[in-house]
Design brief:
3 domains
């Protein structure tokens, strides 16, 4: 494995047998109203795994930050973990579903054995009954990048990645809980109709309820066009984007196998436990692929025979949307997912970071 001059001299990667207890940060302050994209202090980040020693000369020295991108099931989590081991880095997870506590299976959180070897940020920031948004996410993890630690950003939700690495903000318009409650009673199709009435030419994922509700909030508060509100405040670090790609048939097989494993691991039981604990069936936490289908099954709207095919179909649609988003970004350097990806990406980073 090549050793790279990554943000200073590399330390020796942590040994496989080394373990550490999870570090828990304070819970996200629901009363927080500071929507500045680059806050000076961490908010609610859960930090797991061993602390990465940092040479004094690297403190508060923003530099290149590798960002692992790609469609769902392409292998981003494993690559981010292996890069972190090779580079003596920590992992910042940019995923809108992994922020929720007690939801482990369909969110595809890193397993405990990985968290014992690498320190993770961006996990378990809120209870699944609570709402969460990109502003709270950036507030929680931006201080980690600002600190000068060696970091790998693991993509998952492209909006979160863009907000963290490009400084994307949405005009500082705070959520409106009362209006959200009204919108929650509308179907996805009705939300789409309302959004188009507010901005006829709106470009948005009209199958995503969360984004539709937020778009309606923004448009009602500030008026169209929505693109006008997507201001950018560049952060003080440079993103080095690498993407994983696979032939469509291979990606489809990975999606099917992962969906099958999620059901075997107890996805339905985990979803039932969340509902029984008081998490609403229509909550943001249970709206993602995997949980939404499990909720439909528990409500009798999907049969046992239909559940796996439905999960596979919706995950494939998600992968297609993700690739459509990512293909527009010419800054991404693409690599074929598989055994050769790690050495190829390490070689690329060596030339980019030096």
């Amino acid at each position: 494995m090549p050793r790279l001059p990554f943000r200073g001299s590399l330390r020796r990667p942590p040994r496989a047998g080394r373990a550490a207890a999870a570090h828990r940060g304070a819970a996200v302050d629901d009363a927080r109203r500071d929507l500045s994209p680059w806050p000076p202090h961490p908010v609610g980040a859960r930090l797991a795994g061993p602390e990465t020693p940092l040479p004094p000369e690297l403190l508060n020295t923003p530099a290149g930050v590798p960002v692992v991108l790609g469609p769902t099931a392409a292998g981003k989590s494993r690559l981010a973990f292996e890069l972190a081991l090779a580079l003596g880095a920590e992992v910042v997870v940019a995923d809108s579903r992994q922020v929720y506590r007690r939801l482990e299976i369909a969110t595809n959180k890193p397993p405990p054995e990985d968290r014992a070897r690498v320190r993770y940020h961006g996990l378990d920031l809120a209870g699944p009954e609570a709402g969460f948004n990109v502003h709270l996410y950036v507030a929680a993890v931006a201080p980690v990048l600002r600190s000068g630690r060696r970091v790998i950003v693991e993509g998952g939700t492209n909006l979160y990645v863009d907000a963290l690495m490009d400084g994307l903000t949405l005009g500082g318009v705070p959520p409106r809980p009362a209006r959200r409650a009204e919108l929650a009673r509308l179907s996805t199709a009705e939300l789409g109709t309302l959004a188009r009435e507010l901005e006829p030419g709106l470009e948005l994922d009209f199958s995503n309820r969360v984004r539709l509700e937020r778009a309606i909030e923004l448009l009602e508060a500030a008026g169209p066009p929505l693109a006008r509100l997507r201001a950018r405040t560049p952060p003080p670090w440079k993103a080095i984007r690498v993407g994983l790609e696979l032939p469509p048939e291979e990606l489809a097989e990975r999606i099917r196998e992962r969906s099958r494993r999620q059901l075997e691991r107890g996805l339905v039981e985990e979803t039932r436990a969340a509902l029984e604990s008081g998490v609403p069936a229509g909550s943001q936490a249970l709206s993602g692929t995997g949980y939404a289908e499990a909720v439909a099954f528990l409500q009798g709207r999907v049969t046992d025979a239909e559940l796996l095919p439905l999960m596979v179909r919706n995950n494939r649609r998600l992968a297609k949307r993700q690739l459509t988003w990512l293909r527009r970004d010419a800054r991404i350097r693409w690599f074929r997912a598989g055994p050769e990806a790690l050495p190829a990406i390490l070689n690329y980073l060596e030339g980019t970071l030096t």
